[in-house]
TrEMBL record:
Organism: Pseudoalteromonas aliena SW19
This protein's name: HTH merR-type domain-containing protein
Domain HTH merR-type: 1-50
């Protein structure tokens, strides 16, 4: 899933998600220029947001 859907499912802003990735708190797959998020990423975001 892309960042928009990951943001909706987790409640984290897109900016926060990018920051977590930049800080190395979350590993995200990439396909070309797009970030691809999986259920593990969503679970990790849910723990950080709440």
């Amino acid at each position: 899933m892309f960042i928009n859907q990951a943001s909706k499912l987790s409640g984290a802003t897109q900016r926060a998600i990018r920051l977590y990735e930049e800080l190395g708190l979350m590993k995200v797959s990439r396909t070309g220029k797009y970030r691809i998020y999986n259920q593990d990423n969503i679970n990790s975001l849910n723990m950080r947001v709440k």
